[in-house]
Design a protein that fits this description.
Blueprint (H helix, E strand, L loop, with lengths): L4 E4 L3 E4 L9 H6 L11 E3 L4 H11 L3 E6 L3 E7 H9 L9 H4 L1 E2 L12 H10 L4 E10 L2 E11 H13 L1
Parallel strand pairs: 3-4
Antiparallel strand pairs: 1-2, 4-5, 5-6, 7-8
Bound molecules: adenosine-5'-diphosphate.
Length: 166
Protein backbone atom coordinates (compact mmCIF):
# COMPACT_ATOMS: atom_id res chain seq x y z
CA UNK A 1 0.00 0.00 0.00
CA UNK A 2 2.96 2.31 0.58
CA UNK A 3 4.18 1.55 -3.01
CA UNK A 4 7.63 0.87 -1.61
CA UNK A 5 7.47 -2.85 -2.26
CA UNK A 6 6.50 -4.54 -5.50
CA UNK A 7 5.88 -8.25 -6.01
CA UNK A 8 6.54 -10.40 -9.10
CA UNK A 9 5.72 -14.10 -9.53
CA UNK A 10 8.86 -16.28 -9.11
CA UNK A 11 10.92 -13.19 -8.22
CA UNK A 12 9.46 -12.27 -4.86
CA UNK A 13 9.39 -8.88 -3.26
CA UNK A 14 11.51 -6.02 -4.57
CA UNK A 15 12.16 -2.45 -3.54
CA UNK A 16 10.42 -0.06 -5.96
CA UNK A 17 13.04 2.67 -5.66
CA UNK A 18 11.21 5.07 -3.38
CA UNK A 19 13.25 6.86 -0.73
CA UNK A 20 14.96 4.30 1.51
CA UNK A 21 13.96 6.23 4.63
CA UNK A 22 10.37 5.32 3.88
CA UNK A 23 11.18 1.61 4.08
CA UNK A 24 9.98 1.47 7.66
CA UNK A 25 8.19 -1.10 9.76
CA UNK A 26 4.93 -0.23 7.99
CA UNK A 27 6.25 -2.22 5.03
CA UNK A 28 6.57 -5.38 7.09
CA UNK A 29 3.06 -4.73 8.30
CA UNK A 30 1.73 -5.13 4.74
CA UNK A 31 3.55 -8.37 3.88
CA UNK A 32 1.73 -11.50 5.00
CA UNK A 33 2.98 -14.73 6.54
CA UNK A 34 1.26 -16.50 3.59
CA UNK A 35 3.90 -15.10 1.21
CA UNK A 36 6.96 -15.88 3.31
CA UNK A 37 6.53 -19.12 5.27
CA UNK A 38 8.22 -22.50 4.66
CA UNK A 39 6.79 -26.00 4.41
CA UNK A 40 5.98 -27.55 7.79
CA UNK A 41 8.13 -30.42 9.01
CA UNK A 42 6.03 -32.67 11.20
CA UNK A 43 6.09 -36.00 13.04
CA UNK A 44 3.11 -37.96 14.34
CA UNK A 45 2.46 -37.78 18.10
CA UNK A 46 3.40 -41.43 18.68
CA UNK A 47 6.69 -41.19 16.77
CA UNK A 48 9.80 -41.86 18.82
CA UNK A 49 12.29 -39.26 19.97
CA UNK A 50 14.85 -41.15 17.85
CA UNK A 51 12.71 -40.61 14.71
CA UNK A 52 12.31 -36.91 15.57
CA UNK A 53 16.10 -36.52 15.86
CA UNK A 54 16.58 -38.24 12.47
CA UNK A 55 13.90 -35.93 10.96
CA UNK A 56 15.66 -32.88 12.41
CA UNK A 57 18.90 -33.86 10.64
CA UNK A 58 17.34 -35.00 7.35
CA UNK A 59 15.09 -31.94 7.00
CA UNK A 60 17.70 -29.53 8.40
CA UNK A 61 15.25 -27.68 10.65
CA UNK A 62 15.38 -26.46 14.24
CA UNK A 63 11.76 -27.06 15.22
CA UNK A 64 9.45 -29.97 14.43
CA UNK A 65 5.70 -29.80 14.89
CA UNK A 66 3.85 -32.78 16.31
CA UNK A 67 0.55 -33.61 14.67
CA UNK A 68 -2.30 -36.09 14.93
CA UNK A 69 -4.39 -37.49 12.04
CA UNK A 70 -5.21 -34.81 9.46
CA UNK A 71 -2.15 -32.70 10.33
CA UNK A 72 -3.87 -31.34 13.47
CA UNK A 73 -1.36 -29.52 15.70
CA UNK A 74 -0.63 -31.25 19.02
CA UNK A 75 2.77 -29.83 19.99
CA UNK A 76 6.25 -28.57 19.12
CA UNK A 77 9.75 -29.94 19.76
CA UNK A 78 12.89 -27.83 19.56
CA UNK A 79 16.55 -28.80 19.16
CA UNK A 80 17.12 -28.37 22.90
CA UNK A 81 14.07 -30.49 23.78
CA UNK A 82 15.65 -33.33 21.78
CA UNK A 83 19.11 -32.69 23.20
CA UNK A 84 17.68 -32.86 26.73
CA UNK A 85 15.86 -36.12 25.92
CA UNK A 86 19.00 -37.59 24.36
CA UNK A 87 20.98 -36.76 27.51
CA UNK A 88 18.29 -38.30 29.71
CA UNK A 89 19.64 -41.80 29.25
CA UNK A 90 16.24 -43.31 28.31
CA UNK A 91 15.76 -45.50 25.24
CA UNK A 92 14.95 -42.89 22.59
CA UNK A 93 13.56 -45.58 20.30
CA UNK A 94 10.79 -46.24 22.80
CA UNK A 95 10.21 -42.73 24.16
CA UNK A 96 7.31 -41.07 22.24
CA UNK A 97 7.67 -37.41 21.26
CA UNK A 98 4.41 -36.46 22.98
CA UNK A 99 6.12 -37.06 26.35
CA UNK A 100 8.76 -34.38 25.73
CA UNK A 101 6.98 -31.89 23.46
CA UNK A 102 5.53 -28.51 24.41
CA UNK A 103 1.83 -29.19 23.93
CA UNK A 104 -1.31 -27.39 22.93
CA UNK A 105 -2.78 -25.03 24.06
CA UNK A 106 0.64 -23.60 24.95
CA UNK A 107 1.84 -23.32 21.35
CA UNK A 108 2.17 -19.83 19.91
CA UNK A 109 0.55 -19.84 16.47
CA UNK A 110 0.43 -17.72 13.36
CA UNK A 111 -1.94 -17.79 10.38
CA UNK A 112 -1.40 -17.13 6.65
CA UNK A 113 -3.37 -13.86 7.05
CA UNK A 114 -1.17 -12.44 9.84
CA UNK A 115 1.39 -9.75 8.96
CA UNK A 116 5.08 -10.66 9.04
CA UNK A 117 5.62 -7.86 11.58
CA UNK A 118 3.04 -9.27 13.97
CA UNK A 119 4.38 -12.85 13.62
CA UNK A 120 7.96 -11.59 14.14
CA UNK A 121 6.86 -9.80 17.31
CA UNK A 122 5.46 -13.12 18.58
CA UNK A 123 8.79 -14.89 17.91
CA UNK A 124 10.61 -12.24 19.93
CA UNK A 125 8.19 -11.83 22.81
CA UNK A 126 7.79 -15.58 23.36
CA UNK A 127 11.49 -16.31 22.70
CA UNK A 128 10.89 -19.15 20.25
CA UNK A 129 12.52 -19.85 16.89
CA UNK A 130 9.48 -20.98 14.92
CA UNK A 131 5.70 -20.65 14.77
CA UNK A 132 3.37 -23.17 13.15
CA UNK A 133 1.27 -21.55 10.42
CA UNK A 134 -2.25 -22.89 10.96
CA UNK A 135 -5.79 -22.78 9.66
CA UNK A 136 -8.45 -22.97 12.38
CA UNK A 137 -11.10 -25.69 12.05
CA UNK A 138 -14.17 -25.20 14.22
CA UNK A 139 -15.77 -28.42 15.48
CA UNK A 140 -18.70 -27.43 17.71
CA UNK A 141 -17.26 -25.79 20.83
CA UNK A 142 -13.73 -26.95 20.00
CA UNK A 143 -11.25 -25.38 17.60
CA UNK A 144 -8.56 -27.52 16.01
CA UNK A 145 -5.58 -26.14 14.13
CA UNK A 146 -4.38 -27.70 10.89
CA UNK A 147 -0.67 -27.13 10.25
CA UNK A 148 -0.06 -25.60 6.81
CA UNK A 149 3.39 -24.06 7.25
CA UNK A 150 6.35 -23.03 9.37
CA UNK A 151 7.32 -19.41 10.03
CA UNK A 152 10.87 -18.94 11.31
CA UNK A 153 13.58 -16.38 11.88
CA UNK A 154 15.09 -17.58 8.58
CA UNK A 155 11.95 -16.46 6.71
CA UNK A 156 12.38 -12.96 8.16
CA UNK A 157 16.08 -12.89 7.31
CA UNK A 158 15.36 -14.02 3.73
CA UNK A 159 12.69 -11.34 3.29
CA UNK A 160 14.98 -8.69 4.74
CA UNK A 161 17.79 -9.63 2.33
CA UNK A 162 15.37 -9.82 -0.66
CA UNK A 163 14.11 -6.31 0.08
CA UNK A 164 17.59 -4.91 0.58
CA UNK A 165 19.11 -6.56 -2.54
CA UNK A 166 16.32 -5.46 -4.86
P1 LIG B 1 15.57 -24.15 21.54
O1 LIG B 1 14.88 -24.85 22.70
O2 LIG B 1 16.33 -25.11 20.66
O3 LIG B 1 16.37 -22.95 21.95
P2 LIG B 1 13.17 -22.60 20.94
O4 LIG B 1 13.71 -21.36 21.63
O5 LIG B 1 12.38 -22.42 19.69
O6 LIG B 1 14.36 -23.59 20.60
O7 LIG B 1 12.26 -23.40 21.98
C1 LIG B 1 12.21 -23.12 23.37
C2 LIG B 1 11.08 -23.95 24.00
O8 LIG B 1 9.83 -23.50 23.48
C3 LIG B 1 11.14 -25.45 23.71
O9 LIG B 1 10.86 -26.16 24.89
C4 LIG B 1 10.07 -25.70 22.64
O10 LIG B 1 9.40 -26.94 22.82
C5 LIG B 1 9.11 -24.57 22.87
N1 LIG B 1 8.54 -24.03 21.60
C6 LIG B 1 9.08 -24.04 20.36
N2 LIG B 1 8.28 -23.42 19.45
C7 LIG B 1 7.20 -23.01 20.17
C8 LIG B 1 5.99 -22.30 19.82
N3 LIG B 1 5.73 -21.89 18.58
N4 LIG B 1 5.10 -22.05 20.82
C9 LIG B 1 5.35 -22.45 22.10
N5 LIG B 1 6.45 -23.12 22.48
C10 LIG B 1 7.37 -23.40 21.53
Amino acid sequence: MSNLIGAKPKVGYYFTGQELQKLNMMTFDTILVANTHSLPIVVKEHSSVYDAIVTLFIEDVGTIFVVSEGNILEGAISRKDLLKAAMGGKNNNELPVNIIMTRMPNIILTTPEESVLSAAQKLLSHQVDALPVVNAIKEGEKTKYKVVGRFTKTNITRLFVQLAEN
